[in-house]
Structures are given as C-alpha cells and as structure tokens.
Amino acid sequence: MDNFNYENIDFKRLPKIPKHVIWQAVLMIAVRLLWGIIPPNNHFWMVLIIVNLLGWMASYGWRMALLDFRTWLDHMTKEI
Q1: pTM for the model
Q2: What is the pLDDT of residue 30?
Q3: Rounded to 5 degrees, what are φ and ψ at 53?
Q4: Is 60 exceeded by the pLDDT of residue 43?
Q5: Who's near 57: CB < 8 A, 6+ residues apart?
Q6: Is residue 32 domain-resident?
Q7: In this structure, is residue 5 part of a structural domain?
Q8: What is the 3-state secondary structure (H, E, C) of the chain?
Q9: What range defines the domain where residue 53 resides?
C-alpha cells in the first residue's frame, strides 16, 4: 500500500487562451501574408484594413469593439 498523502497536490488546469485572442492572431497573420502577396500599387490595403476591423469586431462582439474603438479614438484625440 501507498502511505503518501495526495491531498495537498494541486491539479489545476492551465489557463485557456480565449477564442477571440486566437481568432485575432490568425486574422493578423492572414492579413500580413496577404499584404506581402498583393502588389503595392493596388488599393487592396483599404479592404484589408476593413476586413481586419470586421474580424476584430466579430471576434468578441461588435458592441465591445465599437466601445473600445471609441475609447481609443477619444484617447488619441485627447477628448476624454
């Protein structure tokens, strides 16, 4: 028989990475790859920025994204 006391062993799970963080990282990598593939004389960069913003908004909710964007914009324009 085993005479060890196993009550004090801490078997906590590792913290999970939120899905919106993974989604945003994948989207940023995809945008970077497309940025290198598309010729610079085309104006596709505007579309890529819009897609990146839409992906960011979809990753954790459009209301929170707009609130964060407005807070950032107010901070940048010093209107807080």
Answers
A1: 0.41
A2: 80
A3: -65, -40
A4: no
A5: 65, 66
A6: yes
A7: no
A8: CCCCCCCCCCCCCCCCCCHHHHHHHHHHHHHHHHHHHCCCCCCHHHHHHHHHHHHHHHHHCHHHHHHHHHHHHHHHCCCC
A9: 19-76
